[in-house]
Design a protein that fits this description.
It is built from five helices and five strands, in the order βααβαβαββα. It has about 140 residues and is an alpha/beta fold. Helix 2 (about 30-45) runs parallel beside helix 5 (about 130-145) and helix 3 packs parallel to helix 4. The chain binds 1,3,4-trihydroxy-5-OXO-cyclohexanecarboxylic acid (DQA).
Length: about 140
């Protein structure tokens, strides 16, 4: 059985650390990858962190995860609020799915309050900053044993 966790990131998250740091902080996606890899190592889980600005690429990675991942942690970014395609792809995945938002989306604009992905996610993190990814990884370790 695979012990890999896919950590998928949607549009604009390549600019994490530079983009609106007052909302998203100063840490980069590389920092997130390093922190999650360290937590994964403790639990015997490998991490594959990916980011794309393209919806279809995220869908393709979710399909790939069907064969190659034990769980998915996903920050769909703006696709959270728009993408039935990402939801449908996640519905084809059988393992645990954790949705992560760096910011507390429910405190922000009303268009950020609805998530298509939450219809599938087994757990949702919002407002923990980039630490949300680390907390999600710890949870993956706990549930995957
Ligand atoms: C986000 C919240 C989304 O509303 C936004 O479009 C993002 C990032 C977050 O991590 O807080 O790009 O998913």
């Amino acid at each position: 059985m695979t012990r890999t966790i896919y950590i998928l990131n949607g549009p604009n998250l390549n600019l994490l650390g530079k983009r609106e740091p007052e909302i998203y902080g100063h840490e980069t996606l590389d920092d997130v990858a390093a922190a999650c890899a360290a937590i994964g190592a403790e639990a015997g889980l490998e991490v594959r962190l990916l980011q794309s600005n393209w919806e279809g690429q995220i869908v393709d990675w979710i399909h790939e995860a069907r064969e190659k991942a034990a769980g998915i942690i996903i920050n769909p970014a703006a696709l959270t609020h728009t993408s039935v395609a990402v939801l449908d792809a996640l519905n084809t995945f059988e393992g645990p799915v954790i949705e992560v938002h760096i910011s507390q989306v429910h405190k922000r604009e009303p268009f950020r309050h609805h998530s298509y992905v939450s219809k599938r996610a087994d757990a949702v993190m919002a407002g923990f900053g980039v630490q949300g990814y680390a907390l999600a990884m710890r949870h993956m370790g706990a549930i995957l044993g």
